[in-house]
Design goal:
52% of the residues lie in helices and 0% in strands. It has 159 residues and is an all-alpha fold. Helix 2 crosses helix 5 and helix 3 packs across helix 4.
């Protein structure tokens, strides 16, 4: 956890790093691992496998072993273990964490897998409940029509 600070030449005490900062760092790290594995899988799949009818291209990729290993390593030192780490990840970055939680929902530890599924459901429900950022009844400009309160200049026809 303190390796980034140490590489810059700073002394780091992991007990002084807030849990939220550690969770944010881990969320980013897990997403990098997930994306690297997805790219490797995509590059390994034959491009014509989906079209030749052998079913090889249609198979879903196996669970990300590297991600689960990195998660297990981080969970070993996390206060409260894997379940608490999953909850902290969901709070740390609710926008980037869902793909990681989907991978962790197939974790070999059933309690971690169930907590990942629960956190994923909660994040999806929260995403649907978020306001869109536009006030109800607010006018927007569309297809050349003037916005409320603004007048457009009529073009004069030239004959």
């Amino acid at each position: 956890m303190t390796a980034p600070l140490r590489t810059l030449g700073h002394r780091a005490d992991s007990t002084r790093v807030p849990e939220a900062a550690r969770a944010t760092y881990l969320a980013d790290r897990f997403e990098e691992i997930r994306l690297a594995a997805a790219l490797t899988h995509r590059m390994a799949v034959r491009p014509d496998a989906a079209d030749d009818g052998d079913g090889e291209g249609a198979q879903p990729p196996e669970r990300n072993a590297a991600l689960c290993a990195a998660f297990d390593e981080a969970a070993a030192g996390w206060p409260g273990g894997g379940q608490a780490l999953v909850a902290a990840l969901a709070v740390a970055d609710p926008y980037a964490t869902p793909p990681v939680l989907e991978e962790l929902s197939g974790h070999v530890d059933a309690t971690v897998a169930e907590e990942a599924r629960r956190a994923l459901r909660a994040l999806r429900a929260e995403a649907h409940a978020r306001p869109t950022g536009r006030a109800k009844g607010a006018k927007t400009a569309s297809r050349g029509r003037p916005q409320a309160g603004k007048r457009s200049k009529k073009k004069r026809k030239r004959h």
